[in-house]
Amino acid sequence: MTPGLKVLASGLCTTVQDVGRFGYQNIGVPVSGALDSFGLRLANALAGNPQATAALEILISGPTLEVAAETIRVALTGAGASLGIGGKRPKTVAAGQSVTLRRGEVVQIAPGRQSACCYLAVEGGIAVPRVLGSASTYVRAALGGLNGRALQHGDLVPLAAERASERSELRAPAPPAAPPGQPVRVVLGPQHKYFKKESLAALFDAEFRVSKDADRMGMRLDGPPLQHKRGWDIVSDAIATGSIQVPGSGQPIVLLADHQTTGGYPKIATVISTDLPAVGRRRPGDPLRFVPVELEEAEEICRRAEREFAKLIAAFEPVPSDRSPEVELLYDENLISGVTTGLE
Fold first, then answer.
1. For residues 109, 218, 47 and 23, what is the CA-based torsion angle, rounded to 10 degrees?
2. Which residues are within 8 A (CB) of 269 and not within 5 positions of it... i.e. 6 or more apart?
3. How many Å apart are CA 167 and CA 240, to the nearest integer?
4. Among 107, 111, 138, which residue's Cα sits nearest to residue 5?
5. Measuring CA to CA, which residue among 75, 73, 72 is closest to residue 162?
6. What's the predicted TM-score (pTM) here?
7. Most buried residue among 20, 69, 219, 288 by CB atoms closer than 10 A?
8. pLDDT tens, 104-135?
């Protein structure tokens, strides 16, 4: 019998994701992958996997899963998220550590209110076929993941390992908290000269909010309209993840993991790669501010964030075996945000 996780309830949108499907945008295939790549990588590191291993991305509301394997080790990441384990002695384990589950145990994933997404990694990984080099799900084209779609009631998510390895559980320490309200850093886009000077000033001076029109493809923002000076219909050109398109309405759209590969609206700016995970975590109604940086600075921020991430993984601690995991708050809400914003 194939080891797996039986889906008792699917949640709003739970999909298989890894770090993405690279190298095929020239034929119209998006990169996809995790909205919060740092959260995915951290969950995998805690579970004992290579960081790019496929895991479950859970958006807004979480699934209920039953273990259909002898034992499995899982790790959950996401600000404020927790994993509820049923049975004779129900317990809740907060995100930020690994835990071993046994056959028949039922787990319910509760995402935190601070983040739109959380990640559940399983030791050994999820055993779905790789399509064009990636297990990531691109729902619009029914590509990758489990049958190219979000999980549904009754699914069995196949796992690569029947039994968890014999080792201590691990937990991640919390890094210094990121400054509250820290803005998202961007570099100016290829068509920033298509906009009036007042619009460029508004992009960096105003506060925007994530609208209800947001999904894995893109995030429309509510705020002051950004006015064009050369029209808003251009010859379609390539789109990078994090591009901020501005259609005729003047309301900017931040393009995310499942974005189209080309587009015909001017791009005023691009979110730097280090800050993309923080954007991916935003929920409808959340505020968003932008600050410009130069390309060279963005590259240094990326290198610095990777060094901080490596230090975080090196600082993993074993969970003492005599400590009960019941309702144990082992996770700090800044665990992810602190390492993805290029701490000074």
1. 150
2. 186, 187, 188, 189, 192, 203, 244, 290, 292
3. 41
4. 107
5. 72
6. 0.91
7. 219
8. 999 999 999 889 999 999 999 999 999 999 99
